[in-house]
Design a protein that fits this description.
With about 120 residues, the protein is an alpha/beta fold. About 25% of the residues lie in helices and about 15% in strands. The protein is globular.
Length: about 120
């Protein structure tokens, strides 16, 4: 490893996981929803494998994993109405552990569901 590139690829998944988890907790807090009563959907959770564990560690009350294979029996639009936050990890790219992954923790991936029936991206 050269001095010009001090970070390793292992740090990136941790940053992504931490950033997404803190965004979820922050959004719940902004709506005065106790974290332990928060209801979160993670679409394509396998793309950030440690996110569920991080949310559990942060005390999130209910976490639902949703994948496109679930769409026929459980449409995401149906689940949205009964949850507070949607973390949408679907889209281009591989998993966060892939060196060429396009998953970026700083793009709009966390949606506010607490006040409306259609999701709004977190800003």
């Amino acid at each position: 490893m050269s001095a010009r590139h001090p970070t390793t690829s292992r740090q990136s998944p941790n940053l992504t996981t931490s950033t997404l988890a803190k965004s979820v907790v922050s959004m719940l807090s902004r709506h005065n929803i106790a974290v332990n009563r928060g209801r979160v959907i993670i679409a394509c959770s396998e793309r950030v494998p440690l996110l569920v564990s991080a949310l559990i560690e942060d005390g999130v009350g209910r976490i639902t994993r949703w994948n496109s294979i679930d769409a026929q029996d459980f449409p995401l639009t149906l689940l949205i109405s009964n949850n507070d936050v949607l973390v949408d990890l679907s889209g281009p790219g591989g998993t966060v552990d892939d060196p060429g992954s396009s998953i970026d923790p700083f793009t709009d991936r966390v949606f506010d569901l607490a006040e409306q029936s259609s999701p709004r991206r977190c800003r």
